[in-house]
Predict the 3D structure of the following.
Amino acid sequence: MHTLLKYSGVLLIAAGIPTLLIDPSPGAEMPLLAGLFILFISREKREDERAVSIKSSSAYIALVLGYGIKLLSTNLYSHKLISYQMTEINHFLILVFAMAIIIYYSRIYIILK
């Protein structure tokens, strides 16, 4: 069950990235957002208290960093230094979930081993 959920999340991410880049219509980001969410909430085969703690702290770090990036990009946009402003909440959520997954897996598999 855990593996099926993980693979479905990865499949949605793989389908969602090209969809987001090619399709400009509203809602085109939903497969990517759903895939990132599913991958983040999926459990490991052996998930102990340490893994749960690392996952929740990774989400916290990603939320803080994502909001900092959003504030920085809004400030740069208002000073006309960049041409893109993150206004959609779904784009912010994609940023936060992507960073949370990257932070979590890097802490679990790269730093701690």
The mean pLDDT is 90.
